[in-house]
Write a structure and sequence with these properties.
It contains twelve helices and eleven strands. It is an alpha/beta fold and 285 residues long. It starts with a helix and ends with a helix.
Length: 285
């Protein structure tokens, strides 16, 4: 998600035995997280005490915002090296947007692992890898069991798959292609992303192409970023498309769409929203 993820890249250092805002003790991995998704996992795995620095997250949950409030913010190669990481975690978008940074870290002998989730199964892999590299593999297994139980508890939309258009931002629209966790969530909830045939992750399309695919519901990503437009502005853009005045809209926080722990919340949100659509579609006729 190239336009949005730039704002989600953040820098976090993890080491064992550290008090909030203090200096980490020796003996454990010193982990830097370059993405909000992996930072949230480190915290959920019980390794919050290991954090020694982060960059500002764009769409943190209230709980994550509280948990990292006292963690010093860092940014760039110099500040990363200053906290002496032994491993760097993040998502593949970090490597796409900052290849020089990744190369510089590896040249200095620092392990860099970047996940590339495109499905919920990939999120499971991400949990295991973050847990192992943070020195808390057992916590990873427990967290994964909880996620899997929640995923299995939902009910998909009954009947045929609903045609769904994802509107992240911008003009022309920035949307989800086939290689996104959100596309997998839509499928699991009983829908089909109208641009699932695109091999991209997040990409621009035209309004004309979106309208031609006749979506029955739109998903709007909610987050705060300069120049991207708030939710009301995005919905107003949708309403200007001929035939979309009454198109149902589901607002999804960005953190639930990117392929992290909150993806399971996004799945539950979509399942609940899609369950109401037969009634909404009937009322619109």
């Amino acid at each position: 998600m190239r336009r949005v993820v730039l704002g989600l890249v953040l820098v976090v250092t993890v080491a064992c035995g550290r008090e909030r805002g203090g200096t980490p003790a020796s003996g454990g991995p010193r982990v830097v997280s370059l993405h909000e998704v992996t930072t949230e996992m480190v915290v959920a795995l019980g390794a919050r005490a290991h954090l020694v620095g982060i960059g500002d997250p764009v769409d943190p949950s209230p709980a994550l915002a509280r948990d990292v409030a006292g963690v010093p913010r860092v940014d760039g190669l110099e500040s990363i090296l200053a906290v002496r990481p032994t491993v760097v975690l993040g998502l593949q978008t970090v490597g796409e947007q900052s290849p020089e940074l990744v190369a510089a870290l590896r040249e200095r002998g620092i392990e860099v692992w970047l996940g590339d989730p495109a499905t919920l199964a990939d999120v499971h892999t991400l949990v295991r890898e973050v847990a192992r590299r943070s020195g808390v593999a057992d916590a990873g297994a427990a967290l994964l069991a909880t996620l899997e139980a929640r995923e299995a508890s939902g009910t998909p939309h009954p009947g045929r798959a609903l045609r769904v258009f994802v509107y992240d931002c911008c003009d022309p629209p920035f949307t989800a292609g086939g290689r996104t966790v959100l596309t997998d969530l839509i499928r699991r909830a009983g829908g089909v992303n109208v641009f699932a045939d695109l091999a991209d992750d997040w990409t621009h399309v035209s309004w004309e192409a979106a309208a031609e695919r006749a979506p029955e519901v739109a998903i709007v990503n909610a987050y705060a970023m300069d120049g991207q437009g708030d939710v009301d502005a995005k919905i107003a853009s949708l309403r200007r498309i001929p035939g979309w005045k009454d198109l149902p809209v589901v607002v999804v926080p960005l953190g639930e769409a990117l392929g992290g722990l909150r993806s399971v919340d996004g799945l539950a949100r979509l399942q609940a929203a899609f369950a109401t659509l037969p009634r909404l579609a009937e009322a619109a006729r």
